[in-house]
Fold CG9123.
Amino acid sequence: MPPEMEIIEATNEELLLGFKLIKSPTDGFTDSVKFELKQTFADSSYARSITSLAVQWPWVASGGTDGRIFVYDMRTRKQSQIILSHAGRVNTLKFTPDLSLLLSGSDDGHMIATRVGSWTKEYDWQKAHAGQAVTHISCHPSSKLALSLGGDQVLNTWNLVNGCVAHKTNLKNKATLDFQTGCLSWSKQGDHFTLSGPLVLEIWGIENAHVMRRIEMPSKPICITWLDGNECLTGLDNGNIAWISLKDEDDTPVRIALSQPVI
């Protein structure tokens, strides 16, 4: 049996959906085991598209183009809170791993830390990226640091203990990123983080904030998840998934873990 899991999906049709992987009924004539996705949750509170999503049990938070953030308690499967902190599209949402804060970034230029449970503002960085849109946020496994990207093409490192900027890295001269920086994600141990450009994925080390590996990709990276401290999966906009390992040599070709046929 696969582990019990629930998939939360946000759609452009203003719907937030939940699905569980369950064992399908058998016909009694075969020993093969099949599984199917069963819908377990649905909410249509949004009047416009959902643009960001954060999931960490028991909370689900979703942000939309209207600036509202809806919070759901999955223990009761009901809406728990509506956060009205932003005046523009919510581009990114992240819970800290210790579930103390919900970080949000918006087109209004604000990056906000909301205290989980009381849902009150802990910090409001009104011009986190020189007043330009905050596009990406990633939290360190310690919950004490966060990274953010914005329209100013600066990578900010935030101290979440005192609410101050700890470090700034100007990415404007990074030709490989080509002003299309994305896929910001800390590794599981917090020793590395990723950044992407149109056809490249970079793995940075935090000790001296330099690029440890630069991997040319066959298509634009659009999302990433770390499996452990050395390996990650990268979703590409051509439908493929690339497997990246820090244990590989620098000239190792990209391994495609899943290939989608072109129709």
